[in-house]
Amino acid sequence: MCTSTRMMFLEFLGTWLYLTIGGLGTLNHPYLPALTWGAALTVGTLLGGQSSHLNPAVTLGMSASGQSSLSSLPGRFIGQFSGALVAGITLVGIAPATTVQGMVADVNITNIEWAEPWFTVPAYGSTMYSDILTFTIAAVMFQLVFCASSGSALYHGISLATIITVFGPSIGAGLNPAREVMGRLVVSFYHWNWDVFMFYDVWAWIPLAWSFSGCLTGALIYWLLIEVPKHLETKKKQKNTKSRNKDEIPYTIDHDDQEVENLTVILDEKPMTEKPPAPPAMPNFDRSPPQQLKTYLDDKETSPSAIKKFCKKNQISTPELEHYLARYRAVPVDRMDLGNGVTVTVTDVAQTEEEKHR
Prior knowledge:
- Strand 3 (335-339) and strand 4 (342-345) form a beta hairpin.
- This protein has helices at residues 2-25, 33-48, 56-64, 73-94, 97-105, 128-148, 153-167, 169-172, 177-191, 195-202, 205-245, 290-299, 304-314, 318-329, 349-357; strands at residues 248-254, 260-266, 335-339, 342-345.
- By secondary structure, it is mostly helical.
- It has a two-stranded antiparallel sheet.
- The protein starts with a helix and ends with a helix.
């Protein structure tokens, strides 16, 4: 709520300053429309801040393209139209007396040379179709640059000045619907009629309707051709970053000057998840049956080279094997040394079975 209220007042102050300075600039001689309205928009944007729009048509386009929240739309509209109304009243108070008297006296709208500070009038010889096309194209261009300028006051002013230079003051200055509606409303109050809205075959609906439609079209074009591809590229980069982080190993290097450098190693190959093969089990002579010991002692050669070969194959030390050999040579094969001087008589199972069958 506080943010919406703050945005409403920013739009109000920025729009008031923008339209007041621009309206006063039209009364100067020589009148330089591009410089006047471009500088006025720049100053108004500086007061309203980077997030201000100062134009209802631009606000609608920014909200449609997702660059402005929809919740701020009502507050912005209230601030912009209120600022335009106060700007029209301010111009009545500080404009030259001859201009104000001419505006008040021209109730039948016979001479509209006084109208420029409050609203836009059609160019001489223009047609409805040409005005619709020109307003639409100018609004599309203005909205595209507005979306790309990221709230820069200078870029906003340059954009409006360029459009006025190309299309004329009746187009560029008329791109603000708040000025067109509220300026005419102030004049209608002094005229006590609505003729200012109806003159020239109700020409007022052209800048009002086609400024909105042009800005909305420009915002949708920008969203479709710029924002959507940008969003897809961002998602692709995030996906690649996540997959790359899985194969990264962070580590730290400590230098002598007490500085710590954090580095990241990127593995080209996937880390090994399988365990290395276990080494062959070392033979346990204490638990070997007598027949196996007999076979080993009788059939195997116990020369030093054979002992070294057996130790290398079974990954045991040579002194350990010699200890076992000396130990079992000192004990009969049919007796098992259990250690600590204890021996037991072992009966060959196969031999016992043969005696039973006899």
